[in-house]
Amino acid sequence: MICIGNKRECFFDNYLIDEEKTTAEARLHRPVAREVVLNCDKPWETRGIAYENFFYDEEIGKYRLYYLGREALTESLRGEQIRVCYAESEDGLSWTKPDLGICAFKGSNATNIILDEKTAPFYDNFMVFKDENPACPPEKRYKGIGDHQHTLTCFFSADGLHFKVGDLITDRGSFDSLNTAFYDKEIGKYRVYFRGLHEPGDDEGKSPFDQTPLALPWQKKEQFIRDIRYMESDDFVNFTEQKRIRMTGDDVQVYTNCISPYPFAPHLLVGFPTRYFYRQQWSAAYDSLCTNKDRVRVAREHPRYGLALTDCVFMISRDGVNFKRYNEAFMRPGAEYDGNWCYGDCYPARGFIVSDPEKGGEGVDKELSILCHERERYGGNLRLRRYTIRRDGFVSRHAGEEEKILVTKPFVFEGEALTVNLSTSAFGYAIFKLETADGKLCTESVEYFGDATDKPIAFRNPAVLFSGKEVILTVRLLDADFYSFKFI
Amino acid sequence: MIYIGHRRECFFDNYLIDEKKTTAEARLHHPVPREVVLNCDKPWETRGLTYENFFFDSQLKKYRMYYLAREALTDLVMSEKIRVAYAESEDGCRWMKPSLGLFEYKGSKDNNIVFDREAEIDNFFVFYDENPTCPPEERYKALVYTETKDKRQTLRYFASADGFSFNDMYELPLFGAFDSLNTALWDKNTEKYYVYYRTYHNKNTPEIVQDRVLAPEDIRDIRVATSENFRDFCVHGCINFGEESDIPLYTNCVSSYPFAPHIFVGFPSRYVNRGTWSVSYEALCTKEGRLKRIKENARLGLALTDCIFMTSRDGVNFKRYNEAFMTPGAEYDGNWIYGDCYPARGFILTDPEKSGKGVDKELSMLCHDRERYGGNLRLRRYTIRRDGFVSRHAGGEEKLLVTKPFVFEGERLTVNLSTSAFGYAIFKLETADGTLCTESVEYFGDATDKPIAFRDPVVLFSGKEVVLTVRLLDADLYAIKFE
């Protein structure tokens, strides 16, 4: 029996849905491109910015962003030295790069660099989280993980700025894109997701790194399929054996995972892996694609640099290991211009910002902003752009011009009132009904319309009468999207 | 047999689609709210702006906009007096209100008032007449709702040589209510004028209600009349939605779609009066303002409006989407009112937010909203892909689009296509009896005029009857055009 208590349940998966009776389709929504919020305009980052990750730090009342910075040596050649840079923002929209005085660049300490080749020889990526484990000592409150000399290594900090190299997490993997780690309050454990590889057709979760740790040459890597590995830990010192996460659908290549607990329903783990697709052969389709000249240039270095393309998909898990992955892209490279449709599109930054919608006024509900850089290979300096999407808005149950129905499996809630994340047109509606598991009507609502993330729904009989009992929620929808519900 | 020549064919309707063989769904897309481009911040328009309409004037190289301006008397009461104001813009994003010096407001002619008459008006619509036989002094044509001295509602024609000074011409020989934005256009294909105007009919009969005021059970509708000379009109009655239900519709916003002018598109506002208060209104924004208006007249507080998309090939028979094209959107203290989603008539071509060299333009549309209930209106820009109102869509599973047999003229195919990196579109031309003519490789990308190369040159099949089949995965196909 499903007990949802007073948790918010989003329709990212069909955990709660009786698919046999439900006719409202699961509709994936895509984020809307908004303004550029950060340019890599400092000399030490002109060929940055990459593997951005951020979180909101309540103690200082700011979003804190970490990203890699690289110099441009020539237009197409970037420096080998990778530095970790830092930016902060009160609203997630205007970001500043403070002069931290931690690492020098060309003799000056006035930089936003927090780690460089002197403090920690870096290979590829660095992700920071604030440890919410009550047992965490203050000097390790901020934890970083990074690809450090081809191993996944942890870093510690008391302030989120000054990091010290800690212990090895694992050397069995291919860590050269953003790995993620966090403390999951729901289970009281740390979860770590990192990049791995497996042989095509392998279903055992074996890894070529089981026998040969440390870096494989890329030629060898190309024989394998990029995947996502998982470990958990009680103390961030001892970790379980690694497992390959399981995703629905075909065994496609995925890069960075961007997994985090969904802030508004933290029992749900959401991820935004980048899908890597290498067509291998030049065709007329590349002839008609943007950035053609640059593509030919980088394809000379290696064909895949020019031919491979990336987009981003959405996935969701309730146990951290088994994920439902949508095969329809969550982010597409978008309208062709001289800087996209490259190997490097659609690597969203890990993190969510809560922001005001463009069209709004007093009383409007916040929406989510996510960040993603663009122009990874061509078209000029990289820049970080804001995208917006409705809160809980990755997937809805949708009805267009015909009435559709959503029927849940039987579940037990605790609470006095129902609130829903609902959007209808003026003409559309949602009508809510609670029934017992054997189909007897408990109570129902009038026709609701409107557009709010926490709309209170009044039933003819108070919902509290059915709290703690097994019920089925049935919703009739017309010209409406239903995103989530929560008993409070 | 369908002849498309080298016209762009959009998938707004299923004119070209073999629905039995096609599995790719028709997906309606919604415009994205962007920034506010115009505020009604002049004293003569603080309770404006409404019934905005604009067009690109290729002689002046400017977008030219006309809108109604009203003063605010109190927070909720606006002046009876309605003036018409004017704004112009080179890019459609930054608008200026020039000082026209035409009409006096409180002792000064330093204002953008372009039309001001004794008679009561309700809406003012201007179009640039591209009819080659149009005399220069009538190049700019305005349709104006006026009430006669005996309170008769009429649609009057005003003409102008420059779009600034309008001369009273005559009353159009049409019967109607006319009290929301009526529109007109000259259609190059049929060499006729089309006028779309508002009236209402009895619930059970399409007859125009002429002899009494609107009753609650009357249905607001859109009528169409055509003319060769803009003087003598052939009235076609209500625009025809076939078997669709008879729902009240306001402003029509009909125009020829600029990128496929043989297709008519419209964005009527849907009027929904639920009639009684319920707990759903309790949970809706702007409750206080709503209750105030209900005291005035129940429907002013209870009725809600949104906007739908419709399309036609003959200007009379329309396919209507019953899923909203624009909704009132996230609730705040200024929306979910009788008055949401009345888009301005007109399209702007703009650069997308995320772009660089070589990017395709997208469409911007304008629609007013309120900063708060009873507060000033403001005109907001919305964006949507060119040809992007409806696509044939495939998500995570491959879907098929199959056309009816058609004849094209041209040497190559271009398509308006968006895929993911993983997705694709594969194009195939067959004869009407299913013999393969030629096919393409797997295409991916995102462009409004993407050239598609076939293994054999397309020109070999020009002028012959063919069927186009497209396999789609994680992709939207919006339009095709042979050229």
Features:
heterodimer; A: 488 residues; mainly beta; Jelly Rolls; Tachylectin-2, Chain A; 10-stranded mixed sheet; 5-stranded mixed sheet; 34 strands; 5% helix; B: 483 residues; 3 helices; 32 strands; 4% helix; 43% strand; globular
Give an account of the 3D structure.
The complex is a heterodimer of chains A (488) and B (483). Chain A is mainly beta. Chain A has helices at 218-221, 284-287, 292-301, 303-307; strands at 2-5, 9-10, 25-28, 32-39, 50-57, 62-69, 83-89, 113-115, 126-130, 142-148, 151-157, 164-170, 180-184, 189-198, 225-233, 243-244, 246-247, 253-254, 260-262, 265-271, 274-277, 309-312, 315-317, 322-325, 353-355, 367-374, 383-389, 395-399, 404-407, 411-413, 418-436, 441-448, 451-457, 470-487. Chain B is mainly β. The model of chain B has no long low-confidence stretch (mean pLDDT 94). In chain B, strand 11 (153-160) and strand 12 (167-171) form a beta hairpin. Chain B has helices at residues 279-282, 287-296, 298-302; strands at 2-5, 8-10, 25-28, 32-39, 50-57, 62-69, 83-89, 113-115, 121-128, 140-147, 153-160, 167-171, 183-187, 192-201, 219-227, 233-238, 255-256, 264-266, 269-272, 304-307, 310-312, 318-320, 348-350, 362-370, 377-384, 390-394, 399-402, 406-408, 413-431, 436-443, 446-452, 465-482. Chain B is built from three helices and 32 strands. In chain B, strands 1, 2, 3, 26, 27, 28, 29, 30, 31 and 32 form a ten-stranded mixed beta sheet that branches. In chain B, strands 4-25-24-23 form a four-stranded antiparallel beta sheet, with no helix packed on it. In chain B, strands 5-6-7-8 form a four-stranded antiparallel beta sheet, with no helix packed on it.
